[in-house]
Design goal:
The structure holds three protein chains of three kinds. Chain A is an all-alpha fold. Chain A has a domain of 207 residues. Chain A contains twelve helices and no strands. The longest helix of chain A is centred in the N-terminal third of the chain and has 32 residues. Chain A is globular, with a radius of gyration of 20 Å. Chain B has one domain. In chain B, helix 1 runs parallel beside helix 5, helix 2 packs antiparallel against helix 3 and helix 5 packs across helix 6. In chain C, helix 3 crosses helix 5. Chain C is built from ten helices and ten strands. Classes of the chains: A mainly alpha, B mainly alpha, C alpha/beta. Chains in contact: A-B, A-C.
Chain lengths: 296, 292, 252
């Protein structure tokens, strides 16, 4: 193999690995609210805020990259607070709809913002990040979520997820916890947006549509939302699978775009019907089945 | 002014038809069916194909596409909703399941038809115009408004005056009570899906005709507007969905006239937020939508 | 008097579920709340614990009004409860349920956990120990790791009581804690209730088991159609003709 083809191979491989990292972060951003029983679908909007805030800083100031990333995480986190206060009172599907609406409002805002070239977005953003930073961010997010589990706050979140009114009667300030999780999710989505902007050179409103947050939800659900690492598993699986299938698909005449969508949809359907706690629950299930077989 | 009203009613009638399907399923199952917009889109293609390749006249293609929509709705119910029926988290898992179906259907459309916008062939869409006061109304607009109102009337009749309609309302009220009274809940739910998807299909064909454009992503914007409509009208309320649909159509048209087209989509979401924050049950919905 | 209800009313639509209820519970008192089904007993507990707001009247704890407070603040002031249809967290184990119950008693070791500082482990070990001893008090120590949804009805009720005790409350509201239990289990719950009261905590006990109520309660309030029809010692209440007519008479 020539040096050139090896380099090409690495470049393609590298971007998939980067996407796994970014998608993992995005999936975690949806997971944070799911972990306390709330379905929030505003994360595409949060991602957009982080991406734009960081891109603008990079393009118009001399801000060092860590500061840019911090801004990318902080901007949506701050916006999440006034959003969450009225909206987290809503239950179930109404919360979902309200957050979908919010995400769309953000997208429309950026489409109409001349300062950032409206629908065309910003391009030629220098690539200030690479795999190490992306995975450091993912690792950090996983660490935080890991430490929350099993702590007093972690149990409070689980209680809220299982039965919010009952949790409140135990002194758990459910509103504060839910808001905190929304803010954390917003920060993660914003961070992912900032990293994405500086890895893929561009930001454009079309990247942050409702379809985007649906993808994030799919990663989280397919991976499993009862454990903190589930969403990352889902992101990895669903980012890799279309790559693997693309070879097969092109031989049969299937376009990569529709194929990826189809795979996403089919996997999601199979998971929700047959493996509701996601891929992460597979080892447990197999263990139980084997134990059952032994007992029988 | 008169022109805006006509345009608003025209747009609103399509929103109303679409939202009715959403709200019917929500009223009966307490689940938001996000595959609705995929049926909307798919049946626009069905009508297009019937006209383009089989050279059927529109007044034949339309009912065929609507019926096809109903059938797809039955399939969606059977595959994505019924297996989840017993589960405790069935509203959220149903929502996710419907997202899965929508994604699959969209992928199908993308693969079969490609991402570009298709148009109806010349001559299918009537282009005569009438003058009503200072408004210029196209024959197409009149036909679409008439069809939408007609379907609304039929739907109201079915719900209020037929056995099926009573059963649907009973199941919407309380599935357990309905079952105790001998209603075959499964069949009623399936029928509701058929009707709901047929309405969505009708909205899709009319939308495709109205803007003379059919594409795999045409469902997305309407889906989100549809959400605003059912929230404004009140989840589960059919009259609410109808009124809110027309209201949103008018609101959008007037907003574009006053503020320019870039704010067009923002109107729907602005309304959505205001309603959810100040009066979550919407115009005609039932109370008690917040958590304890 | 620790817990005081004055003129408490609650209507649902046109229905007056609770219609001008007055009574009080002292410190360390076991106070029974009985009445036929639909008399408003669970609604009253829901009002006191803050799940719903009264349409009128006042509820106060230690002199402070609590009827307009959100339920987590009421809990922080020292009111916990169990539920008629048992509301354990199904996916959590018995001991985890009790740990959640101890939320108010714990400090939050979150930063300590993040930074692996010394001290957080001790806090968590202490909390776990307290939870296990509470489970031991209700005889559930052996099943502490079991998922709540796998426990039997009686076991779940006992875990729920342990959970309600976990925050060392001033007042515990028990909603039919012995429903579905056999006589041995009922006796141990009765002993537990007396123990709790001796420690200075008050108990508001909604029950259908009349014998239990007579045994453990210091005072009883009888409700019918949302109104108080009798309030006094067990002896006085059993002798009250209105009570006999409305409730005890039908029990035979």
């Amino acid at each position: 193999m020539s040096a050139e083809s090896l380099r090409d191979l690495w470049l393609t491989y590298q971007s998939t690995v980067a996407f796994i990292g970014l998608n993992g972060l995005l999936a975690l951003s949806v997971y944070t609210t799911l972990s306390c029983g709330q379905l929030s679908l505003a994360q595409a909007g949060f991602m957009a805020l982080g991406a734009y805030a960081s891109a603008v800083l990079t393009l118009h100031t001399q801000a060092p990259f860590p500061l840019v990333l911090l801004a990318g995480a902080a901007a949506p986190a701050l916006v999440a607070i006034p959003l969450g206060l009225p909206v987290l009172r809503l239950k179930g599907v109404f919360l979902a709809i309200a957050t979908i609406g919010f995400g769309e409002v953000i997208r429309i805002f950026f489409v109409n913002l001349d300062f950032t070239n409206g629908a065309l977005g910003l391009v030629a953003i220098p690539q200030r990040t690479g795999l190490p930073v992306i995975y450091a961010a993912l690792g950090g997010a996983l660490f935080v979520l890991w430490r929350i589990r099993g702590s007093r706050a972690g149990y409070a979140l689980e209680a809220i997820r299982e039965d919010e009114p009952a949790a409140r009667t135990m002194g758990i300030d459910a509103s504060a916890y839910k808001l905190s999780m929304l803010v954390l999710g917003a920060a993660l989505a914003g961070l992912a947006g900032a990293l994405d902007a500086h890895f893929n050179f561009m930001v454009a409103p079309s990247n942050y549509s409702f379809g985007r947050v649906v993808d994030m939800l799919v990663y989280a659900v397919v991976g499993g939302t009862t454990v903190f690492y589930g969403p990352v598993l889902g992101a990895a699986f669903l980012t890799l699978l279309p790559e693997v299938l693309r070879e097969v698909g092109s031989r049969v005449g299937l376009q990569p775009g529709p194929l990826r969508l189809f795979v996403n949809g089919l996997v999601l359907l199979l998971v929700i019907l047959f493996l509701p706690n996601g891929i992460a629950s597979l080892p447990g299930r197999l263990r139980r089945r084997r134990a059952g077989a032994h007992a029988a | 002014m008169g022109q805006q009203i006509v345009n608003g009613l025209f747009l609103g009638s399509i929103y109303a038809l679409f939202a009715l399907g959403y709200t019917l399923v929500f009223g009966v199952l307490d689940i938001l069916n996000l595959a609705h917009q995929a049926v909307f889109m798919l049946c626009a293609y069905v009508a297009l194909l019937l006209v383009l390749h089989l050279h059927l006249p529109m007044f034949v293609a339309f009912p065929v596409a609507v019926a096809a929509g109903g059938l797809v709705g039955l399939a969606v119910e059977r595959i994505a909703f019924r297996p989840l029926r017993g589960r405790s988290d069935s509203n959220i898992s149903g929502l996710i399941s419907s997202i899965a179906m929508a994604t699959i259907l969209e992928a199908l459309a993308l693969q079969l038809f490609g991402p570009d916008v298709e148009r109806f062939p010349f001559g299918v869409v009537p282009d005569r115009t009438l003058h009503l006061g200072d408004a210029v109304v196209s024959e197409l607009q009149v036909v679409i408004i008439a069809i939408a109102l007609g379907m609304l009337a039929v739907l109201t009749f079915v719900l209020k005056r037929t056995v099926l309609g009573r059963r649907i309302r009973a199941v919407a009220e309380s599935p357990t009570a309905a079952r105790v009274l001998g209603v075959n809940v499964d069949r009623v739910i399936a029928a509701s899906f058929f009707v709901s998807s047929a309405l969505g299909a009708a909205a899709g064909v009319l939308f495709g005709l109205a803007f003379n454009s059919v594409s795999p992503d045409m469902g997305r914007t309407v889906e989100l507007k549809g959400l605003a409509v059912i929230i404004l009208g009140g989840m589960g309320s059919m009259p609410g969905a109808a009124i809110a649909g027309f209201a949103l159509g008018l609101l959008e048209v007037f907003t574009v006239a006053k503020l320019g087209s870039s704010y067009r989509d923002a109107v729907a979401f602005g309304v959505l937020f205001l309603v959810l924050v100040f009066r979550p049950r919407g115009l005609l919905g039932a109370a008690a939508l917040r958590e304890a | 008097m620790l817990l005081r209800l004055a003129g408490v009313r609650r209507t649902f639509g046109g229905l007056r579920a609770v219609d001008g209820v007055d009574f009080a519970v002292g410190e360390g008192e076991v106070h029974g709340l009985i009445g036929p089904n639909g008399a408003g007993k669970t609604t009253l507990l829901n009002l006191v614990s803050g799940l719903i707001r009264p349409s009128g009247g006042e509820i106060s704890l230690g002199g402070h009004r609590i009827d307009r407070l959100p339920s987590h603040r009421i809990a922080a002031l020292g009111v916990t409860r169990t539920y008629q249809n048992i509301r354990l967290f199904p996916a959590l184990s018995a001991v985890e349920n009790v740990l959640v119950g101890s939320h108010l008693r714990r400090s939050d070791p979150l930063w300590g956990r993040m930074l692996f500082l010394p001290g957080y482990r001790r806090e968590e070990a202490d909390a776990l120990q307290r939870a296990l001893s509470l489970l031991a008090r209700v005889g559930m120590e052996e099943r502490s790791r079991e998922r709540a949804s796998n426990l039997s009805y009686g076991e779940q009720r006992r875990v729920e009581i342990a959970r309600a005790l976990a925050s060392a409350p001033r007042v515990i509201l028990l909603d039919e804690p012995t429903a579905g239990m056999n006589p041995t289990e009922v006796a141990s719950i009765a002993a537990l209730i007396r123990e709790v009261a001796r420690a200075g905590q008050s108990v508001l006990l909604v029950e259908h088991n009349v014998k239990l109520v007579m045994d453990v309660c210091d005072r009883i309030t009888v409700l019918n159609f949302g109104k108080v029809i009798a309030d006094g010692t067990p002896a006085a209440v059993t002798a009250d003709p209105a009570v006999i007519a409305a409730y005890l008479g039908s029990e035979g």
